[in-house]
Design brief:
Layout (H helix, E strand, L loop, with lengths): L1 H9 L1 H12 L11 H17 L4 E5 L6 E5 L18
Antiparallel strand pairs: 1-2
C-alpha cells in the first residue's frame, strides 16, 4: 500500500490534469445536444485504458450512449508491472 500511495503522491499533478481533461468534456447524457460529447468522452476513456496497458479497450455503440469496455487479464503477482492508473467513471 505504501508503494501505491507514494506513486499517487508523486504523480498527483499528472492525475489531476487527466481528471480535469475528462471533466472538460461536456458529456451531459440527458441533453441530446451533447450526444457528440458523450462519444468524445467514450473515446477519451478508451484511450486512457489503452495507454494504461489494457489488452482490449473498445467502444460499443448502442441506441443510446456508447459503452466503453476494457479488459486487462494480466493481474496477479506474476503480471508485468504496468504504469498504474486510476480511471473514474
Amino acid at each position: 500500500m505504501d508503494k501505491a500511495l507514494h506513486y499517487t503522491k508523486k504523480h498527483q499533478t499528472q492525475f489531476l490534469e487527466q481528471l480535469k481533461s475528462f471533466l472538460r468534456i461536456e458529456c451531459i447524457s440527458a441533453q441530446e445536444a451533447h450526444r457528440p460529447d458523450m462519444v468524445h468522452a467514450a473515446e477519451w476513456l478508451r484511450d486512457q485504458l489503452t495507454e494504461a496497458g489494457f489488452v482490449r479497450a473498445e467502444i460499443f455503440p448502442t441506441q443510446g450512449h456508447p459503452v466503453v469496455y476494457g479488459e486487462w487479464l494480466a493481474a496477479g503477482p506474476e503480471a508485468p508491472i504496468r504504469r498504474p492508473k486510476l480511471v473514474l467513471k
